[in-house]
Amino acid sequence: MQVPKNAVLLRAFIGEADRHDGGPLYERIVMKARELHLAGATVLRGGMGFGHSNRVHTSKILRLSQDLPLVVEIVDSEDAINAFLPVLDGMMPGGLITLEKVQVLQYGPGAIREPTRLT
């Protein structure tokens, strides 16, 4: 699979306790992205955060949270991400979705080329 040099990064900010179709939402998002042949997805777990509810979720020992913040990141072409957005919208009851343009330097095995040095 080729990812264009100029791609889009989708970020979905959700909670660890969020569910979809009887399973964790983050797993459902990643598996749906894989099923639709998107270039890749990563789930990042946050130690602390808050959202629209203004309730702080933290992993501190004295205040164990069952709903830590998660970020699901997906990078692919703009067309592929735009096609995925309605699917994601149907899966997420809430949360935050952001998009930003990114430049892909490497995808898959191989060495990253050395940048041109300015003298």
Explain what the structure shows.
By secondary structure, the protein is an alpha+beta fold. Helix content is 21%, strand content 33%. It has helices spanning 25-35, 78-91; strands at residues 6-15, 19-20, 23-24, 41-45, 48-49, 57-58, 69-76, 96-103. The strands form 3 sheets. The chain has a 4-stranded antiparallel β-sheet. A hairpin with a 2-residue loop joins strand 2 and strand 3. Helix 1 (25-35) packs antiparallel against helix 2. It starts with 5 loop residues before the first strand and ends in a 16-residue tail after the last strand. 15% of the residues are buried.
Strand percentage: 25-35%
Shape: globular
In the CATH hierarchy, the architecture is 2-Layer Sandwich
Sheet with the most strands? 4 strands, antiparallel
Structural class: alpha+beta
InterPro entries: N-reg_PII-like_a/b, N-reg_PII/ATP_PRibTrfase_C, UPF0166
Family: Belongs to the UPF0166 family.
Pfam families: DUF190
Protein name: DUF190 domain-containing protein
Features:
alpha+beta, 2 helices, globular, 33% strand, Alpha-Beta Plaits, two-stranded antiparallel sheet
Question: Topology, please?
Answer:
Elements: E1 6-15, E2 19-20, E3 23-24, H1 25-35, E4 41-45, E5 48-49, E6 57-58, E7 69-76, H2 78-91, E8 96-103
Antiparallel strand pairs: 1-7, 1-8, 2-3, 4-7, 5-6
Helix pairs in contact: 1-2
Organism: Azospirillum aestuarii
Protein name: DUF190 domain-containing protein
Family: Belongs to the UPF0166 family.
